[in-house]
């Protein structure tokens, strides 16, 4: 295994997380940090793809004008979903 040089503040944070009992060892801290970074990057990719889909829909003339009436309808639909215990799409509620 190669040696890595970690900034002092990062090493201190890793040690603090282990000493607090939150993680069993330094490797566990780093694995969790990498897992969260990967999840964040996947979500950013998903959001970029959704934006691209939306832009393409607008370019095809499939856009919707954001009028007060449209926003009221969206609010009603969201309230109804909430009453049924349904979660909104991750694209609109990250």
Question: Can you describe what's shown?
Answer:
The protein is mainly alpha-helical. It has one domain. Helices cover 66% and strands 0% of the residues. The protein has helices at 8-19, 26-59, 68-83. The chain is elongated, with a radius of gyration of 22 Å. The two termini are 38 Å apart.
Question: Which key terms come to mind for this protein?
Answer:
single chain, 94 residues, mainly alpha, 3 helices, 66% helix, 0% strand
Distance between the termini: 38 Å
**Tally of alpha and pi helices:** 3
The percent range for strand residues is: under 5%
Low-confidence parts:
none
CA-based gyration radius: 22 Å
Q: State the secondary-structure class.
A: mainly alpha
Order of helices and strands: HHH
How many beta-strand segments? 0
Please tell me what the overall shape is. elongated
Average pLDDT score: 92
Largest sheet: none
| Overall structural domain count | 1
In which range does the helix fraction lie? 55-70%
Tell me the layout of helices and strands.
Layout: H1 8-19, H2 26-59, H3 68-83
Brief overview, please?
66% of the residues lie in helices and 0% in strands.
């Amino acid at each position: 295994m190669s040696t890595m040089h970690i900034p002092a503040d990062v090493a201190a944070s890793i040690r603090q997380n282990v000493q607090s009992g939150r993680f069993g060892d330094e490797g566990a801290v780093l694995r969790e940090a990498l897992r969260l970074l990967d999840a964040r990057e996947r979500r950013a990719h998903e959001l970029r793809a959704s934006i691209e889909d939306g832009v393409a829909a607008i370019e095809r003339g499939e856009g919707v004008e954001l009028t007060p009436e449209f926003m009221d309808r969206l609010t009603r639909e969201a309230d109804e979903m909430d009453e049924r215990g349904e979660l909104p799409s991750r694209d609109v509620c990250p």
